[in-house]
Write a structure and sequence with these properties.
The complex is a heterotrimer of chains A (628), B (172) and C (103).
Chain A lengths: L6 H16 L5 H28 L5 E11 L2 E9 L1 H24 L6 H20 L3 H19 L6 H32 L4 H7 L5 H18 L8 H4 L5 H10 L4 H8 L1 H6 L1 H23 L4 H21 L3 H28 L17 H15 L5 H16 L1 H26 L7 H6 L5 H16 L14 H6 L13 H28 L13 H7 L4 H48 L6 H21 L1
Antiparallel strand pairs in A: 1-2
Helix pairs in contact in A: 1-2, 1-4, 2-3, 2-4, 3-4, 3-10, 3-15, 3-20, 4-5, 5-6, 5-10, 6-8, 8-11, 8-13, 10-15, 13-14, 13-18, 14-15, 14-17, 14-18, 15-16, 15-17, 15-20, 16-18, 16-20, 17-18, 17-22, 18-22
Chain B lengths: L5 H22 L3 H21 L3 H26 L11 H25 L15 H10 L2 H22 L7
Helix pairs in contact in B: 1-2, 2-3
Chain C lengths: L6 H21 L3 H26 L3 H31 L13
Helix pairs in contact in C: 1-2, 2-3
The chains are: A mainly alpha (628), B mainly alpha (172), C mainly alpha (103).
Chain lengths: 628, 172, 103
């Protein structure tokens, strides 16, 4: 199957083409069916290829499709790399992608843009697969831009709402900033190593100076910041929740935003060499984790909470990358994909039941009304909070253990972030499902469980969230850590854990106790005391106001970047465009007109004058030809 | 005579007359006089042709220009009844400008002539190419086609002149 | 030397005649006089052609003059027809009145 690995991206492409060209003529069932089946076919191929890879000794397969760009020394074949890392990502993308496709057929059922939605979704899956499968940075970049495009299209899916369009544009522009860094990184790689194929680049990485490697690593990290929503380029992700909920689940939680993680794991050589770069990654990661988690504490929009949680979890993954725990980060990507997709889809189910309401202040007491959604979301929340033996516990613990080894301070910060996570996730859960219903009577009447096309993916994901931890059991339990073994061929510099068992047990126990305390605290606050989020901003204390308004980061960017840019643009428009350029263009016009006005007088119609002019002309010609 | 040959004397006299009559054409106020002076100029030019051994052209020149064309001019002037009184005059300024422009042009032409320096002009003998026999041979051998075309041109000009000149139907 | 006369004199003579024609064209307003001056200029050129033809002992120059005469005859015929037409319409042949080119 590995030889046929090109089929994996091919199926979604076919689905995209069919839906794109004929979507309007197809019935909804057929349109959604084609989209889902195409992803399912990819998933089956990916699974078969994965099994083959597991049993083969050769862990790196390059499948060349055609020669793509060939110019002088620049030679870029279009080829796919199938190794443990891309194989694993293929499984996540196609597997979760398939579940979300199924879910979408239910969620989007009444939407007018049904086939358009699946067109974009298939296109997204295609580009995402391209991103992880390419054997060089350029194919990755093509996929990178492609998923950015699909993200833009899907955030602004309901394009009649201007706010959604603005959110889409914000995501696009912010990603563009990161993309510039990525592109510069690729160019620097080509200049330094004369190639952009992974194999060539990584084997030559040790040759170049540390400064070059650091520059490359930092530039690539800027790209990752944009795509994976890290400080300072994270503000687009919460706004991206304007898109339909399945999109938030697939693109803005499970797959696309982890592209930055994939890229850094893929380029782990650079980060192993450059300490500066990996320190930067770790610090940015942990700061993002805490920062986003605190914002999440006081949000009232169910999807916004999950969005900040995603940013925070991504920060945790980057922390793992920064401290050299590459396989742990991939592990966390995986478990996060499970439980965050679950939470988003669950939130979608809640929103569906509430008739489009996203504000948790208007919810409450949904526990009994939508049981399946409640149970699955409860499982997801426990998983993300890090309670054993749910999946989130293992992946988060692995990252934190490696962080502890690396730096105690980073570990403390990581712990705080994960405690905050547990708190705001349970806050969301309690406010949504417990207590009394706070919505309108009409909404209460309307409450209903979602159709099975939506609940089945929820249940599957819930199962994965619970059991996913088995993929990477701690090494000191003397169980095989399948994930790190699986990824070991592509991690070039490993740092096995040097902690003794007592420390590891202590850390683990601390994490569990911390999570437990936080959950108890949340329970006491929201269930026992029935604290509700403040309706009115005026009643908030200053610190609450600050957090509620997301630390005014958007306003800060607005004031520091957008306003000056606007000012400069306006100044340039008023001065350069209107005065200089328009002046030049109009000046040429009015000059011709003015000259014409003067010269027109020469056309007196007087033949005598014409003849004299002609004679003078002849005189001048003779003068210049023969005499001067 | 005075160190000049007959030919040189003739050239000088003819040139003087040609220039003088030419000036008279321009300066005379009466159009009829202008025509007559122009005829005289053409006679002088015909004399030059004779001096240059172009006898055939000299005869044709007198017949066509002095005979046919100038008579045509005369007819038209008489037809329009133009005389000294009806003659429109330019202002003195215009005349001065014209004279200055003409003088400048002469100046640059002579200058060009000097500037061109030695043009390598030399005579290749003195054969009788201007005679009817020789000219006719060239005309009907090398230039037969243009010659025939010229006849068509004259015919067309004749038709055109009649068409333009004739009164329109209903015109008084 | 053509029969003892330098070619330069012929060039000078035709130049002077040409200029007289040109000045006439510029200084007069009567269309017919202008026309005549143009004929004078034409003849100045003819004289030049004939003198060079004799100088180079080549009949082609004279043949050319012959053609010029034919064309001049045609031109005069048509030109005078046009002038008489104009006179019939506006009872004048003053060039300053013929300023329709302006618009």
């Amino acid at each position: 199957m590995i030889k046929l690995i090109a089929l994996v991206p091919l199926f979604p492409l076919i689905g995209f083409l069919i839906n794109g060209f004929f979507g309007k003529k197809l019935s909804k069932g057929l349109s959604g069916g084609i989209a889902s089946v195409s992803v399912l076919a990819s998933f089956i191929v990916a699974v078969l290829a994965f099994l083959e890879l597991e049993h083969s000794t050769n862990k790196s397969h390059v499948v060349e499709l055609f020669s793509w760009i060939s110019a002088d020394t620049l030679n870029i074949p279009f080829e796919f790399l199938y190794d443990p890392l891309s194989a694993w990502f293929l499984l996540i993308i196609t597997g979760i992608g398939f579940l979300i496709h199924i879910y979408s057929t239910g969620y989007m059922h009444d939407d007018a843009g049904f086939s358009r939605f699946f067109t974009y979704l298939n296109l997204f899956v295609f580009f995402m697969l391209l991103l992880v499968m390419g054997n060089n940075y350029l194919i990755m970049f093509v996929g990178w831009e492609g998923v950015g495009l699909c993200s833009y299209l899907l955030i602004g899916f309901w394009f009649k709402n201007q706010a959604y369009n603005d959110a889409a544009r914000k995501a696009f522009v912010m990603n563009r900033i990161g993309d510039l860094g990525f592109l510069l990184g690729i160019i620097l790689i080509f200049v330094s190593y004369g190639s952009i194929s992974y194999g060539d680049v990584f084997s030559r990485a040790g040759v170049s100076s540390n400064a070059v490697v650091t520059a490359i690593a930092l530039l690539l990290f800027i790209g990752a910041m944009g795509k994976s929503a890290q400080i300072p380029l994270y503000t687009w992700l919460p706004d991206a929740m304007a898109g339909p909920t399945p999109v938030s689940a697939l693109i803005h939680a499970a797959t696309m935003v982890t592209a930055g993680i994939y890229m850094i794991v893929r380029s782990n050589v650079f980060y192993s060499i450059s300490e500066v770069a990996s320190e930067t990654v770790a610090i940015v990661g942990v700061v993002t984790a805490i920062f986003a988690a605190t914002i999440g504490l006081l949000q009232n929009d169910i999807k916004k909470i999950l969005a900040y949680s995603t940013v925070s979890q991504l920060g945790l993954m980057f922390l793992g990358l920064g401290v050299g725990a590459f396989s742990s980060s991939v592990f966390h990507v995986t478990t996060h994909a499970f439980f965050k997709a679950l939470l988003f889809l669950g939130a979608g189910s809640v929103i569906h039941a509430m008739g489009g309401e996203q504000d948790i202040r208007k919810m409450g007491g949904l526990k009994g009304k939508i049981k399946i959604t409640y149970i699955t979301m409860l499982l997801g929340t426990i998983a993300i909070s890090g309670i054993p033996p749910f999946s989130g516990f293992f992946s988060k613990d692995e990252i934190l253990a490696h962080t502890y080894e690396h730096s105690k301070l980073l570990w403390v910060l990581g712990m705080i972030a994960s405690m905050l996570t547990a708190f705001y996730m349970f806050r969301m859960l309690f406010l949504t499902f417990f207590g009394k219903f706070r919505g309108t009577h009409e909404q209460e009447h309307h409450l209903h469980e979602s159709p099975s096309s939506m609940t089945i993916p929820l249940m599957v994901l819930a199962a994965l969230s619970v059991l996913g931890g088995a993929l990477g059991l701690p090494e000191f339990w003397h169980m095989p850590n399948w994930m790190s073994e699986h990824l070991s061929p592509i991690i070039l510099h490993k740092n096995p854990s040097a902690l003794d068992h007592t420390t590891e047990w202590t850390l683990m126990g601390l994490a569990v106790v911390a999570a437990g305390v936080v959950i108890y605290f949340a329970h006491a606050m929201f269930i026992t005391n029935g604290v509700l989020p403040l309706e009115n901003e005026e009643k908030m204390k200053p610190w609450q106001k600050l957090i509620y308004n997301k630390y005014y980061v958007d306003e800060f960017y607005d004031a520091v970047i957008r306003k000056p840019l606007d000012l400069i643009s306006t100044a340039f428009y008023k001065f350069l465009d209107l005065q200089v350029i328009d002046g030049l263009v109009n000046g040429v016009g009015s000059m011709v007109k003015g000259t014409g006005n003067v010269v027109r007088l020469l056309q007196s119609g007087n033949i005598g004058f014409y003849i004299v002019s002609m004679v003078l002309g002849v005189i001048l010609i003779l003068l210049f030809t023969f005499i001067i | 005579m005075l160190g000049y040959t007959i030919t040189q004397w003739l050239f000088g006299i003819l040139s003087f007359l040609a220039i003088m009559f030419g000036l008279m054409v321009v300066f005379s106020r009466n159009p009829v006089n202008s025509v007559l002076y122009l005829v005289m100029t053409f006679f002088c030019i015909a004399g030059h042709y004779l001096l240059l051994n172009a006898q055939f052209l000299a005869i044709v020149h007198i017949v066509v220009y002095a005979g046919a064309i100038m008579v045509l001019f005369l007819f038209v002037i008489m037809l329009m009844n133009l005389n000294e009184d009806t003659e429109p005059q330019r202002t003195w300024l215009s005349k001065i400008i014209a004279a200055v422009a003409g003088g400048l042009m002469l100046f640059v032409m002579v200058g060009s002539l000097k500037g061109a320096g030695d043009m390598g002009l030399q005579q290749y003998g003195n054969a009788q190419i201007g005679f009817v026999k020789n000219l006719g041979a060239v005309l009907f051998k090398d230039f037969l086609f243009p010659f025939e075309i010229a006849s068509v041109l004259l015919l067309a000009a004749m038709v055109g002149a009649i068409m333009i000149g004739k009164k329109e139907a209903g015109e008084s | 030397m053509l029969n003892g006369i330098s070619i330069n004199y012929y060039i000078l003579l035709s130049a002077v005649l040409f200029i007289i024609g040109a000045v006439g064209v510029m200084a007069r307003r009567n269309s017919i006089i202008i026309f005549m001056c143009i004929e004078l200029m034409l003849n100045a050129v003819n004289l030049m052609l004939v003198s060079f033809s004799t100088l180079h002992n080549d009949a082609k120059g004279q043949v050319f003059v012959f053609f010029i005469m034919a064309v001049a005859a045609a031109e005069v015929a048509v030109g005078l027809a046009i002038l008489s037409m104009i006179y019939r319409n506006i009872k004048n042949i003053d060039t300053d009145l013929l300023s329709n080119l302006k618009n």
